[in-house]
Amino acid sequence: MHASFPVDVDLALVGGGGAASLVLAALDRHDVTGLRVAVVDPVHKRGQDRTWAFWGLPGDDLDPLLSASWSQVDVVTPAGRRVLPLDPLRYAMLRSAPVYDRAAEAERRLDAVRVGAPAGELHDDGERVTVRDPDGRDLVRAGWVLDSRPRRPSRPGRTNWLQHFRGWWLAADRPTFDPQRAVLMDFRTPQPRRGVSFGYVLPVDDRFALVEYTEFGPELLDDAGYDAALRGYADLLGLDLNALRVREVEDGVIPMTDGPFESRPSPRVVRLGTAGGATRPSTGFTFSAMLRQADQVARALAAGRPPVPAPAYPGRHLWMDAVALRALDRGHVGGVEFFERLFDRNPPERVLRFLDGVTSPAEDLAVMRSSPLLPMTGAVLGDAAGRLRARLRR
Q1: Mean per-residue pLDDT, 104-115
Q2: How far is residue 166 CA from its own chain's centroid?
Q3: Which listed residue, of 5, 111, 262, 333, carries a Cα 20 to 30 Å from 182's Cα?
Q4: What is the mean pLDDT of residues 49-57?
Q5: For residue 78, is the peptide bond before it cis, meaning its omega torsion is within 30 degrees of 0?
């Protein structure tokens, strides 16, 4: 912890997880100089605590950090297996340890101050922001604050689901996995009464892979439920767990909601990550939008502009997500059917770019045409009625 408070800086990062780590690395990459930076977090992130999977063009700044990447992926349903070529994109896996290491190196180059204390209230007077600890003591005064602490939507959504999962990092003594093939979604898992489940496999090499079970839905499982689901999925894959070692376990819960996240709560406070709307409501995917936010913040600061990124997703995508969540939640369409049609009736690149929120309006219309017409029309009407009721209540 810094010995003298409050620390006076130009930029304070409140929260030191993935979003802040990507911002630090982007500031270093864009050679932002002369900026006084502070990181406020009681924990200095190190080592391996999560895995991100995302798609994009090869040859970017993250390539040296990747654990693995694939030029094709499998989508599996009870009806069969589709092998999706991703060219020119690739599906990539990034573990947290190299991201945190790169952020730590960027901190050193930026000569950033690390404040090892929890942040409480942020007081923004329009000129400076004061970061206080939970007891009300001033920790930092900053020109701008980037806040990535988790928080709820600014108002409850009409549909509130969760992406929740458990993954096992499995190690084998002999070749067991195909390192050329990643399984993006495998819907042969038993489907929950309300929601959708799938497994996936991300092999690092032929003897080491992440095997994960994921659900989209309103309710979490207990530990025994996740473990039972993973054992069942391993059986579907033909894996003999008695011959494998579980090296690591990863768990997570990510919001899937049409409730709005307030990305600019005051003039000089900007929220990033899930708190800043980076989580895609219909899928829970977050990493690509976090990466975009970090790059936009760094480019703005390098040019002397305010560090305010663009909205994580176009408004039309958030509307489409709200409709899709409603259709899935109310049972208008089954989860397996919804995703099966999405991948069956669109080129893989279009689907992945749509899930990242970077498709054009024309591509969005093509995606919409691939969904079941009558059930989705009912969801559109229901969403419109829900929005009207919410406005009348407000």
Answers
A1: 96
A2: 15
A3: 333
A4: 92
A5: no
As a whole number of angstroms, the longest Cα–Cα distance in the chain is 64
Distance CA 355, CA 377 (A): 21
Identify each DSSP E strand in the chain by its residue range: 7-14, 37-40, 51-56, 68-70, 72-77, 80-85, 90-95, 113-115, 122-124, 129-132, 138-147, 160-172, 182-186, 196-205, 208-217, 244-257, 269-271
The predicted-structure confidence for 254-270, as pLDDT tens digits, reads as follows 999 999 999 999 999 99
Sheet of 182-186, strands arranged across: 80-85, 72-77, 182-186, 196-205, 208-217, 160-172, 244-257
391 three-state secondary structure = helix
Give the pLDDT confidence score for residue 368 in this predicted structure.
86
Tokens 């509307």 map to which residue?
319
Amino acid at the residue 113: V
pLDDT value at 380 more than 70: no
Other CB atoms within 10 A of residue 173 CB: 9
CA 128 from centre of chain? 30
Give me the chain's average pLDDT, please. Answer: 93
Which secondary-structure segment (H or E) carries 388?
helix 373-393
Model pLDDT, residue 375: 61
Tens digits of residue pLDDT in 202-243: 999 999 999 999 999 999 999 999 999 999 999 999 999 999
Question: Distance between CA 281 and CA 135 in Å, rounded?
Answer: 34
Instruction: Classify residue 170 by its DSSP letter.
Output: E
What is the spatial distance between Cα 336 and Cα 327, in angstroms, rounded to a whole number?
A: 13
Query: Helix, strand, coil proportions of the chain in percent (round to 5)?
Result: 35, 30, 35
Question: What angle in degrees, to the nearest 10, is found between the helix axes of 361-369 and 315-329?
Answer: 10
The residue-averaged pLDDT of 186-192 equals: 97
Q: For residues 53 and 91, is the Cβ–Cβ distance under 8 A? A: yes
Residue 126, CB-side half-sphere exposure with 13 Å CA sphere:
0
The one-letter amino acid at 394 = R
Q: Which amino acid is at 126?
A: G
- Tell me the β-bridge partners of 131: 122, 140
